[in-house]
Amino acid sequence: MEVLQLHKWDVSKEEALEIQRMLVKRLKLSPDFDVDEIRLVAGIDVSFLGEQSLAAIVVTSFPELDIVEQEVATVKINFPYIPGLLAFREAPSIIECAKRIKSEPDILLVDGQGIAHPRRFGIACHIGLLLDKPSIGCAKSWLLGEKQGYPPLPPIPNEQGGVAYLSDGKDVVAIALRSAEGKPPIFISPGHRIDLETALKIIKGTIKDGQRLPAPLLFAHNLATERKRGGQKRLFI
Questions:
Q1: Which of 118, 136, 204, 228 is the right S-S partner for 199, CB 3.0 to 4.6 Å?
Q2: What span, in angstroms and rounded, lies between the C-alpha atoms of 162 and 42?
Protein backbone atom coordinates (compact mmCIF):
# COMPACT_ATOMS: atom_id res chain seq x y z
CA MET A 1 0.00 0.00 0.00
CA GLU A 2 1.10 3.54 -0.67
CA VAL A 3 1.58 5.79 2.36
CA LEU A 4 1.16 9.55 2.19
CA GLN A 5 3.68 11.79 3.95
CA LEU A 6 1.40 14.14 5.84
CA HIS A 7 3.74 15.28 8.63
CA LYS A 8 6.89 14.41 10.55
CA TRP A 9 6.77 11.91 13.43
CA ASP A 10 9.55 13.23 15.66
CA VAL A 11 7.28 15.70 17.47
CA SER A 12 6.43 16.97 20.94
CA LYS A 13 3.05 16.53 22.61
CA GLU A 14 2.09 20.09 21.66
CA GLU A 15 3.08 19.52 18.04
CA ALA A 16 1.13 16.25 17.94
CA LEU A 17 -2.00 18.03 19.19
CA GLU A 18 -1.60 20.68 16.52
CA ILE A 19 -1.18 18.01 13.82
CA GLN A 20 -4.47 16.43 14.91
CA ARG A 21 -6.24 19.78 14.80
CA MET A 22 -4.87 20.37 11.32
CA LEU A 23 -5.60 16.92 9.87
CA VAL A 24 -9.14 16.62 11.26
CA LYS A 25 -10.16 19.25 8.70
CA ARG A 26 -9.24 16.81 5.92
CA LEU A 27 -11.53 14.01 7.05
CA LYS A 28 -14.44 12.93 4.85
CA LEU A 29 -17.26 11.37 6.83
CA SER A 30 -19.36 10.05 3.97
CA PRO A 31 -18.78 6.92 1.88
CA ASP A 32 -17.42 7.31 -1.64
CA PHE A 33 -17.80 3.61 -2.50
CA ASP A 34 -20.48 0.96 -2.99
CA VAL A 35 -20.62 -1.57 -0.15
CA ASP A 36 -21.60 -4.27 -2.63
CA GLU A 37 -18.28 -3.77 -4.42
CA ILE A 38 -16.10 -4.39 -1.34
CA ARG A 39 -13.78 -7.35 -1.96
CA LEU A 40 -10.94 -6.95 0.55
CA VAL A 41 -11.01 -5.83 4.19
CA ALA A 42 -7.84 -5.35 6.27
CA GLY A 43 -7.55 -5.64 10.05
CA ILE A 44 -4.83 -3.60 11.77
CA ASP A 45 -3.60 -4.26 15.31
CA VAL A 46 -0.52 -3.20 17.29
CA SER A 47 1.27 -4.89 20.18
CA PHE A 48 4.44 -3.96 22.06
CA LEU A 49 7.80 -5.63 22.58
CA GLY A 50 9.83 -3.68 25.10
CA GLU A 51 10.86 -0.50 23.30
CA GLN A 52 9.33 -1.56 19.99
CA SER A 53 5.81 -1.47 18.60
CA LEU A 54 4.75 -4.46 16.51
CA ALA A 55 2.07 -3.91 13.87
CA ALA A 56 0.15 -6.70 12.19
CA ILE A 57 -2.05 -6.31 9.12
CA VAL A 58 -4.21 -9.14 7.84
CA VAL A 59 -6.15 -8.73 4.61
CA THR A 60 -9.25 -10.89 4.20
CA SER A 61 -11.69 -11.50 1.38
CA PHE A 62 -15.17 -10.09 1.79
CA PRO A 63 -17.71 -11.40 2.53
CA GLU A 64 -15.99 -14.81 2.81
CA LEU A 65 -13.44 -13.57 5.42
CA ASP A 66 -10.68 -15.86 4.14
CA ILE A 67 -7.12 -14.66 4.73
CA VAL A 68 -5.52 -13.26 1.58
CA GLU A 69 -2.34 -11.62 2.89
CA GLN A 70 -0.61 -10.91 6.18
CA GLU A 71 2.44 -8.93 7.30
CA VAL A 72 4.10 -7.73 10.49
CA ALA A 73 6.61 -4.97 11.17
CA THR A 74 8.42 -3.67 14.24
CA VAL A 75 9.59 -0.11 14.82
CA LYS A 76 11.29 1.53 17.78
CA ILE A 77 8.88 3.54 19.93
CA ASN A 78 9.70 7.25 19.90
CA PHE A 79 6.58 8.71 21.51
CA PRO A 80 5.27 8.22 25.06
CA TYR A 81 1.87 6.79 25.92
CA ILE A 82 -0.51 9.75 26.04
CA PRO A 83 -4.28 9.14 25.91
CA GLY A 84 -5.72 10.64 22.74
CA LEU A 85 -2.38 10.59 20.90
CA LEU A 86 -2.17 6.86 20.23
CA ALA A 87 -1.30 7.26 16.55
CA PHE A 88 2.02 8.93 17.31
CA ARG A 89 3.05 5.84 19.25
CA GLU A 90 1.58 3.15 16.99
CA ALA A 91 1.29 4.53 13.46
CA PRO A 92 5.01 4.32 12.53
CA SER A 93 4.94 0.51 12.80
CA ILE A 94 1.59 0.40 10.96
CA ILE A 95 3.10 2.48 8.16
CA GLU A 96 6.07 0.15 7.86
CA CYS A 97 3.76 -2.84 7.78
CA ALA A 98 1.41 -1.25 5.23
CA LYS A 99 4.31 -0.67 2.85
CA ARG A 100 4.81 -4.46 2.73
CA ILE A 101 1.20 -5.23 1.84
CA LYS A 102 0.90 -5.90 -1.89
CA SER A 103 -2.90 -6.04 -2.12
CA GLU A 104 -5.13 -2.97 -1.96
CA PRO A 105 -7.80 -3.35 0.74
CA ASP A 106 -11.09 -1.57 0.13
CA ILE A 107 -11.69 -1.00 3.86
CA LEU A 108 -9.39 -0.69 6.89
CA LEU A 109 -10.51 -1.85 10.34
CA VAL A 110 -8.32 -0.32 13.02
CA ASP A 111 -8.12 -1.40 16.66
CA GLY A 112 -8.88 1.98 18.22
CA GLN A 113 -11.10 5.02 17.94
CA GLY A 114 -12.27 6.97 14.92
CA ILE A 115 -14.08 10.26 15.52
CA ALA A 116 -15.10 9.08 19.02
CA HIS A 117 -12.16 11.05 20.34
CA PRO A 118 -11.67 14.35 22.26
CA ARG A 119 -10.54 16.08 19.05
CA ARG A 120 -12.55 13.77 16.76
CA PHE A 121 -9.33 12.38 15.35
CA GLY A 122 -8.53 8.95 16.70
CA ILE A 123 -6.01 6.51 15.24
CA ALA A 124 -8.51 5.14 12.69
CA CYS A 125 -8.88 8.65 11.26
CA HIS A 126 -5.11 9.11 11.15
CA ILE A 127 -4.48 5.76 9.43
CA GLY A 128 -7.32 6.35 6.96
CA LEU A 129 -5.76 9.65 5.90
CA LEU A 130 -2.22 8.24 5.73
CA LEU A 131 -3.30 5.34 3.50
CA ASP A 132 -6.08 7.31 1.76
CA LYS A 133 -8.62 4.54 2.32
CA PRO A 134 -11.99 4.20 4.03
CA SER A 135 -11.30 3.34 7.67
CA ILE A 136 -13.33 2.29 10.69
CA GLY A 137 -12.35 2.49 14.34
CA CYS A 138 -13.33 -0.61 16.29
CA ALA A 139 -12.40 -0.35 19.95
CA LYS A 140 -12.84 -2.68 22.91
CA SER A 141 -13.31 0.21 25.36
CA TRP A 142 -15.00 3.61 25.40
CA LEU A 143 -12.71 6.65 25.42
CA LEU A 144 -15.24 9.42 26.11
CA GLY A 145 -16.27 8.45 29.62
CA GLU A 146 -18.17 10.31 32.32
CA LYS A 147 -14.94 10.96 34.22
CA GLN A 148 -13.80 13.02 31.23
CA GLY A 149 -17.00 15.05 31.29
CA TYR A 150 -18.90 13.22 28.54
CA PRO A 151 -22.47 11.83 28.70
CA PRO A 152 -23.01 8.46 30.41
CA LEU A 153 -23.25 5.39 28.23
CA PRO A 154 -26.87 4.51 27.40
CA PRO A 155 -28.14 0.97 28.04
CA ILE A 156 -26.80 -1.53 25.49
CA PRO A 157 -29.17 -4.43 24.73
CA ASN A 158 -27.81 -7.77 25.93
CA GLU A 159 -28.84 -9.79 22.91
CA GLN A 160 -26.47 -10.34 19.99
CA GLY A 161 -26.78 -7.48 17.50
CA GLY A 162 -28.02 -4.98 20.08
CA VAL A 163 -26.83 -1.41 19.50
CA ALA A 164 -26.75 1.93 21.29
CA TYR A 165 -25.87 5.27 19.71
CA LEU A 166 -23.22 7.21 21.61
CA SER A 167 -22.77 10.98 21.83
CA ASP A 168 -19.86 13.20 22.75
CA GLY A 169 -22.34 15.73 24.13
CA LYS A 170 -22.84 17.44 20.77
CA ASP A 171 -23.21 14.77 18.10
CA VAL A 172 -23.58 11.02 17.73
CA VAL A 173 -20.03 9.82 17.12
CA ALA A 174 -20.13 6.06 17.67
CA ILE A 175 -22.25 2.95 18.02
CA ALA A 176 -21.85 0.36 20.77
CA LEU A 177 -22.54 -3.08 19.30
CA ARG A 178 -23.21 -6.24 21.30
CA SER A 179 -21.47 -8.43 18.74
CA ALA A 180 -21.84 -11.61 20.80
CA GLU A 181 -24.39 -12.38 23.50
CA GLY A 182 -22.88 -12.40 26.97
CA LYS A 183 -19.74 -10.54 25.91
CA PRO A 184 -18.82 -6.86 26.31
CA PRO A 185 -19.78 -4.55 23.43
CA ILE A 186 -17.40 -3.15 20.85
CA PHE A 187 -17.35 0.54 19.96
CA ILE A 188 -17.56 1.51 16.31
CA SER A 189 -16.80 4.99 14.95
CA PRO A 190 -16.02 6.33 11.48
CA GLY A 191 -12.41 7.01 10.62
CA HIS A 192 -12.20 8.42 7.09
CA ARG A 193 -14.29 8.24 3.91
CA ILE A 194 -17.21 6.52 5.64
CA ASP A 195 -20.25 7.31 7.78
CA LEU A 196 -21.52 5.65 10.95
CA GLU A 197 -24.29 3.52 9.46
CA THR A 198 -22.06 2.19 6.67
CA ALA A 199 -19.36 1.42 9.23
CA LEU A 200 -21.86 -0.55 11.31
CA LYS A 201 -23.04 -2.51 8.26
CA ILE A 202 -19.47 -3.47 7.33
CA ILE A 203 -18.52 -4.41 10.88
CA LYS A 204 -21.58 -6.66 11.18
CA GLY A 205 -20.55 -8.32 7.92
CA THR A 206 -17.09 -9.16 9.25
CA ILE A 207 -18.09 -10.75 12.58
CA LYS A 208 -18.34 -14.51 12.69
CA ASP A 209 -21.07 -15.98 14.87
CA GLY A 210 -20.10 -16.10 18.53
CA GLN A 211 -17.03 -13.88 18.15
CA ARG A 212 -16.73 -10.47 19.74
CA LEU A 213 -14.28 -8.92 17.28
CA PRO A 214 -14.49 -8.62 13.49
CA ALA A 215 -12.54 -11.47 11.88
CA PRO A 216 -9.89 -9.26 10.20
CA LEU A 217 -9.09 -7.61 13.54
CA LEU A 218 -9.09 -10.92 15.38
CA PHE A 219 -6.70 -12.37 12.80
CA ALA A 220 -4.41 -9.33 13.15
CA HIS A 221 -4.49 -9.57 16.94
CA ASN A 222 -3.63 -13.28 16.82
CA LEU A 223 -0.77 -12.67 14.38
CA ALA A 224 0.67 -9.88 16.54
CA THR A 225 0.37 -12.06 19.65
CA GLU A 226 2.13 -14.95 17.91
CA ARG A 227 5.05 -12.76 16.86
CA LYS A 228 5.22 -11.11 20.28
CA ARG A 229 5.71 -14.55 21.82
CA GLY A 230 8.60 -15.17 19.47
CA GLY A 231 6.83 -17.49 17.06
CA GLN A 232 7.09 -17.39 13.30
CA LYS A 233 3.86 -19.27 12.60
CA ARG A 234 1.61 -17.68 10.02
CA LEU A 235 -2.14 -17.87 10.14
CA PHE A 236 -2.41 -19.73 6.87
CA ILE A 237 -0.19 -21.73 4.50
A1: 136
A2: 24
Report the pLDDT value the prediction gives residue 230, as an integer from 0 to 100. 73
What's the sign of the alpha-carbon dihedral 38, 34, 120, 142? negative
* CATH fold of 29-228: archaeoglobus fulgidus dsm 4304 fold (3.30.2170)
Domain spans of the chain, in order of start: 29-228
pTM over 0.90: yes
Nearest CA among 198, 213, 199, 82 for reference residue 143: 82
Choose among 237, 231, 230, 224: nearest CA to 67: 237
Taking a C-beta distance cutoff of 8 angstroms, is the pair 224, 217 a contact?
A: no
User: Tens digit of pLDDT for each residue in 26-50?
Assistant: 999 999 999 999 999 999 999 998 8
